[in-house]
Amino acid sequence: MKKILSEKKTSKKKIVFIVLAVILVLFIAVGVAAYALTHGFYKKTNYLSNEDAMNNYTVPEEEVDEVAPEEAQGEVLTPEQEAELEQKIAEFSEAEPITNDGDVYNVLLIGVDRRDTSWAGNSDSMILMSLNYEKEQISMISLMRDTYVDIPGIGMRKLNAAHANGAGPLLLETVTKNYKIQVDRYVSVDFNSMIDIIDKVGGVELTLSKDEVKVANNYVTEMCGLKNLDPESYYFANEGTKNCSGIQAVAYARIRYVGHADYQRTERQRTVLTKIMEKMKNMSITELYSFAEDILPLVTHNIPEDEMWGLLAKAPSLFQYNLVKDRIPYDGMYKVIYVKRQDMLVPDWEATIAKLKETLY
Fold first, then answer.
1. Per residue, what are the HEC states of 53-117?
2. What are the φ/ψ torsions at residue 133 (nearest 5 degrees)?
3. What is the DSSP letter of 330?
4. Whether the predicted pLDDT of 23 surpasses 80
5. What are the residues whose beta carbons fall under 8 Å from the beta carbon of 221, sequence distance 6 or more?
6. Is 303 exposed, middle or buried (0-12, 13-18, 19+ CB in 10 A)?
7. Cβ atoms of 132 and 360 closer than 8 Å
8. Which of 279, 299, 313, 359 has the fewest CB atoms within 10 Å distance of its CB?
9. How far apart are CA 48 and CA 312, in angstroms?
10. Quick one: average pLDDT of 219-234?
11. How far is the C-alpha of 216 from the C-alpha of 236, rounded, in Å?
């Protein structure tokens, strides 16, 4: 009898062991299949390591949109005043620590202005996207292209020159050095890629004034010419609100000479990005995955695979976060100077960095 009971117990143990082994094999198989699927998908994206970022680009001779001294809007500095300002900026930069917080994920969204792919291009749109998981907050802070910054290895220049000289990695290094927050990741697009991304979400709803329509249509003509398209079907017929195609939305985001110049242009860029996010907010997980599959090959980035999937997994909850939008220089915290034959924006760095860190962290 004891022998029979012992055999039954042994048999049950074998069955349990076999069941557990089968379950384990299934989990491994599912895991391997999921990894193969997602890894294959990620390999299609335009990932560039920081070391390879400039492999296919040349660094052009510096081109400056010169402003005649009599047309300068900023304070004209003497060489001595310029040296004094640079010293003051350097001293603050040396004293102020760079903030890095594990609860905050920073990624720089870069819009590149170029007509060909032989060079990295100037970064005419730079939006710091900061995800604060603890505060459940997304911050979109535009960094204005004409800001006077210290570009590592280059010197004091406009912020948008960093990308032309070293693509995403040098721009990240420049932002980290000058704005005193650690930014290691970037996603960049040019005009054509942004047009395609907006078209893939079905366009975005925008409201244009009469003056904005006139200027936007000039950009429509230019972009359609570059893409060999008939601009007639893309022109804005009149002012008002309408669902805009990719070409129309990018034309709107490029408007610079209506309203408050480049300050208002950064607002238009944040508006377009917000509209895209609103479209994504209503997507299911499956739709988000499909959308990511469509757009990731259109952008250049340095986000590692594990981080990419972590962000995608968090997407549904991220869309519920509070959204904060702003730009730097902040109102009342900068001055305009005329140096190197250009008008430059010089933030009050101490007050600016304090406000930025308070907002993000």
1. CCCCCECCCCCCCCCCHHHCCCEECCHHHHHHHHHHHHHHHHHCCCECCCCEEEEEEEEEECCCC
2. -70, -35
3. P
4. no
5. 231
6. buried
7. yes
8. 313
9. 19
10. 94
11. 8
